[in-house]
Amino acid sequence: MLNVRINKELEKALENLASTRNVTKSEIVKEALTEYIKTQSSTPYEAGKDLFGSDLSGIKDGSVKYKENIRRKISEKHSY
Q1: What is the C-alpha to C-alpha distance for residues 37 and 76, in angstroms, rounded to an integer?
Q2: Which of 9, 30, 35, 69 lies most in the core, judged by the most C-beta atoms within 10 Å?
Q3: How far apart are alpha carbons 31 and 39 in whole angstroms?
Q4: Can you give the residue ranges of every domain in the chain?
């Protein structure tokens, strides 16, 4: 078990949120701590991996096979 002291403003905001969401204050604190720990313990790669390779080109391995992809595009452009 853990006890935490918070200021009156934060406690009031927590009470309002709990009331609005119809959950306990403990549930909100647990959810917030879980998210905080997840983001703080991840590597920079883990934090952004959902963004890597997500451009609109449709080429998922563009950074790995960029020379091959350039050759292919040139070849496609000049094939008659």
Answers
A1: 48
A2: 69
A3: 13
A4: 8-78
